[in-house]
Amino acid sequence: MMIPLGPQAALATGVLGTLSLGLMRRPPALALRALALVAVVSSMIFAVWAPIGAFPSLIILCDAKSIAWQCLIGLGSLPLALWLDGEDDVLVALFLGATLGMSLLVTAANLPMLFIALEFMSLPAYLLVARSRPGSRGVEAAIKYFFAGGVAGALFLLGLSMYYADTRSLAAAAALSPLGQAGATLMAAAALFKLGAFPLNWWLPDVYEAAAPEVSGFLSTAMKSAAVLFLMRLCELAPQAKFAAYLPAIGAVTALVGSVMALRQERLQRLFAYSSISNAGLLILGVGAWALAGRPADGVIALLFFLVAYALMSNGTFAFIKYAGIETRAQLKGRGAMLFAPSVAFTILLFSLGGVPPTGGFIAKLLLLWRAVDANLLWPAVLGGLSALISLAYYLGMTRELWFEAPQGPEPKPDSGAALVIACAVGVVLLGAAPWLMSSFSGVPTR
Q1: Range of the domain at 181
Q2: pTM for this structure?
Q3: Is the pLDDT at 437 greater than 60, yes or no?
Q4: Which of 305, 326, 322 is nearest to 398 (CA)?
Q5: pLDDT exceeds cutoff 60 at 142
Q6: How many structural domains does the chain have?
Q7: Helix, strand or coil for residue 180?
Q8: Distance CA 221, CA 427 (A)
Q9: Whether residue 396 sits in one domain with residue 337
Q10: Geometric angle at alpha carbon 231, from 309 and 378, rounded to 5°
Q11: Staple partner for 113: which of 12, 35, 92, 108, CB 3.0–4.6 Å?
């Protein structure tokens, strides 16, 4: 049965079911875990079966991008759904609530709906960070995250009011005066805030470091995917806006800054936070190339492929941190022999993040940079490639520490989750082989 808002209904049912179970004196942990997992998987299934073009209203849009991004958000959310222990019903409800907000964001058809969905996904995320790792550090990071989100929301509302004052429209406008251009730029700044673009990235390292590793993986994948589509929707709703011309430069600088700052980090979650900023820069570069080239389908496919690969890479690396029970690079030393299979998978993920062929990360970066060159964005593409080259310094450095240095400190006590790390590594290997597999199949004669 095809239901236009099936993904959102599945997630909303999960939220209501979790809150209902939370009314019990001792909510059953297994039921909460199952509910979270079923809600996320059901949202992906409903997204696949959603009819394109349904709900042709001024509020909700069901197109190919919304369906693809709904599946992508489910992929980014699935690891956290698997990690949840079900002991905290509020944590489960916050997770499903944030996922529901992202799901609403990808189907938003006008600017007010974009803002409502933006707040719907952000408010639970602030509390999710604070609750995932109790203590003053988590609360401090959540407060910083809240104020950053508040600034993003204020920028969007201010931009929306200026845009409406110029166009008298809350949807796409054919032409914009300087007032409308300023409004569109402020709304784009809100999306760049969510992506962690330089210099609006001051909140992101502290948040990713303070949250539990599995929550950081969720924020760096599902939330980032929603923010990318948020920026793309703004490019569609304001096709004449001039901010699109600056996106490639912003993306290239962000990618370079993220890679350089990661070189100085010793704490793993903070290092991967700057890695996330660098990858966000490449995504912003890709969105800019897509917008300036006339929003072709090839550009969407390149962005989608990158986000799928990054969902596997980032969730896999944060899952390894959680599984191995480590926090710093020094604790990586010699762990390869102690945790052999997960360490092999972690090494593959590091190679993929660094863009080493033939992994999915290499294909993803190649596609995005190729789209930039194809749009005559030579210097942003060169800077994006340089950021990938710089990132090899710390990715290969972690590989050396993992396999070729003597261990320091006590032997780790692994948590559950090795299968998730290995599954993510297998995924990036398959993505790396996808172009060759497709070219092989294309040469097979058909009857």
Answers
A1: 156-437
A2: 0.90
A3: no
A4: 326
A5: yes
A6: 2
A7: helix
A8: 15
A9: yes
A10: 70
A11: 108
